[in-house]
Hints:
Blueprint: H1 6-35, H2 41-96, H3 108-120, H4 123-135, H5 141-145, H6 151-164, H7 170-173, H8 182-195, H9 201-210, H10 215-225, H11 229-239, H12 242-254, H13 261-264, H14 273-286, H15 294-300, H16 306-315, H17 321-331, H18 337-350, H19 352-361, H20 365-377
Helix pairs in contact: 1-2, 2-3, 3-4, 6-8, 8-10, 9-11, 10-12, 11-12, 12-14, 14-16, 16-18, 17-18, 18-19, 18-20, 19-20
Amino acid sequence: MWRQGEWVYTLLVLGILLAEVWALGQMSVVFLGRFFEGTSYPQAYSALLQGVILTGLSLLLLSGYILLYHALTTAAETHMRQEKEASVTRFTEALFGTAQPPPPPWSKPTLEALLQMREILKGAEAQKLQEWLEAYPNPWEGPLRRRFATRATRLKALDALAQARIPRALPLALPYLHHKDPLLRLVAARTVARSAPTQAPGTLAQALLNADLPRGALLEVLLLLEDRAVPVLEQLLSRGNTKGLWAALEAVGRLRLLALARRTAPFVAHSNPEVQAAAMRALLRLGYPPEGHADAVVKALRSPQEFLRIHAVRLLPLLRRTVAESELWKHLGDPSFYVRRAAAQALAEFNYELLQRAAQEHPDRYGQEMAAQVLRER
């Protein structure tokens, strides 16, 4: 990204480069004429002297600008840091005391201080900060609506809106979900997730479905919704494609949304193994048995895909006890090291005595060793 003042440095270097090219060109013409005896010695000497003087002045000017730039930048950064610290103090006194907040219009350091506090604080204090931000004219609207704004300017504006978390940022950020730049799409999605009010789940869900986001980015956005995630996840579970279903199921488990456990259970029988695995992980995190879909879990145990067998084995303790014990004992002899380990760890939590017996009596040598290894780790 460009720092303030670097365009002046660019123009200065370009000017010096052009001057040096001119001086070298002039010297080349003069010395070529001297070689063919078409130029006198004083003329050649004068051209050489001019080139040396021009080079010296260019170096002096460039060095002086660099030193002055760093001196002024250091002073400006010190002033901005002090102003930001003073603003934090005044906002804190206004939040927890009887003082008034800094009066608008706010300078850039003051606004940055307020955004950082909004990012850190929660509860009633955060609500108060948000009221101040909502009452303030939106300084980021111009860069986002401007047609020829730079990428860095738009990224800064979107990031600031994400920190502010004001609902009026939603119509500004939504168009960027379809921008050709993937980084702008990602930052816009974060802004939308943090700014969306609870009253607009349909708009947000549809925007996320239409946005061309990687599934990891989509999951991050859903996690940022926090307590506003349930209505959006319900719509994704109803209308989402494979990518949307995977992200929604992951979010259900990571956010521990027990209210969506019943909606999650049918996906253990989904045709896509990635979605199946995500549903199993979600149910395991919730501690919720796949009611009515235990057969799909048992079927996944026979899958040729190792990762699916691993997740199915981990979910077995939530099934009927006789089924769980039988399948865990059987999968201690699975060809995959990771499936055997998952079975032994599940037995350690589910039926420790059966794990001890497996370490002595299991018919598969590798199953015995795995059971013994997990026992030693306890």
